[in-house]
Write a sequence for this structure.
DNA sequence: GTAAATGCAAAATTTTTGCACTAGG
DNA sequence: CCTAGTGCAAAAATTTTGCATTTAC
């Protein structure tokens, strides 16, 4: 559970943080900050978008979340911090996880003299759902 | 030469476009729109940032440029449209091309049922220059 | 001459910041 | 208590848009 790990890092377990964590846990839709904010609005009317951004940044720095820069306009977030590929559909804008089988992406420690710490692999095209729709018509 | 290819696409060769193309040709610094704009300001004081964005979008759509979404805050551009990896230095924010030898990135046509048209591989860490600086001190 | 491109300024979006107030531990 | 965290509103930063004017062909 992520909550206990946060405690160990000296982070306070506020209701806002727990709610954000709950939304993200097991979530494969890769929401952006604003989507999380709107989902929580009904329950937490006083919640601030700044708090959402703040929490997401903390979680990314703590290695509990992964930031996804696949879309040109806004950042998305993945509760799975293990490096894996993502696919963005040009038609419906959905982001999919691509599980490279059991082989997660290997991060080369050194590339042309650069010290590599992290990596991201993004793929673009038409997702299987949109492709099927097209086929039906 | 890119200019002639643009003509074939029915695009007009305006001074602004040619200037933007000239700045990008052979450029390995991966400039953002604003950097291009500022480099051209002295020579083209009336140039509009909207024209820079417009031109960049046209060139990307025409397949003459590659958009780089490696940085979370702004988009960068690469005059080399062939898929290849990029490296972002967390210390100096420079973007480097990673030439995967002669093996360019292969785009799988199909991944888990999705139709893949394009891809991007990004790497993050400390570049060789910043690493060397650290070592000297 | 005419459609395409430009420049300008305003708007739209996303993200960040400063600061007073609140509350978790 | 006391510091970390929150909320608010304003600001910053990037990108887009509408429209009148200009210009490449």
């Amino acid at each position: 559970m992520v909550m206990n790990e946060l405690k160990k890092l000296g982070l306070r377990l506020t209701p806002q943080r727990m709610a954000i964590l709950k939304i993200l846990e097991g979530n494969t839709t890769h929401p952006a900050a604003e989507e999380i904010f709107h989902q929580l609005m009904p329950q937490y009317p006083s919640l601030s978008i700044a708090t959402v951004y703040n929490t997401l940044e903390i979680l990314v720095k703590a290695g509990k979340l992964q930031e996804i820069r696949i879309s040109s306009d806004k950042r998305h977030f993945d509760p799975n911090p293990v490096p894996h590929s993502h696919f963005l559909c040009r038609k419906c804008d959905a982001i999919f996880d691509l599980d490279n089988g059991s082989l997660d992406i290997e991060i080369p420690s050194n590339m042309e003299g650069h010290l590599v710490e992290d990596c991201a692999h993004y793929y673009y095209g038409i997702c299987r759902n949109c492709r099927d729709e097209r086929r039906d018509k």
Summary: Residues 2-136 of chain A form a domain with the Arc Repressor Mutant, subunit A fold (CATH 1.10.10.10). The beta strands of chain A are 66-68, 76-78, 85-89, 95-98, 110-111, 114-126. Chain A touches chain B through 34 residues (CB under 8 Å). Chain A has a mean pLDDT of 89.
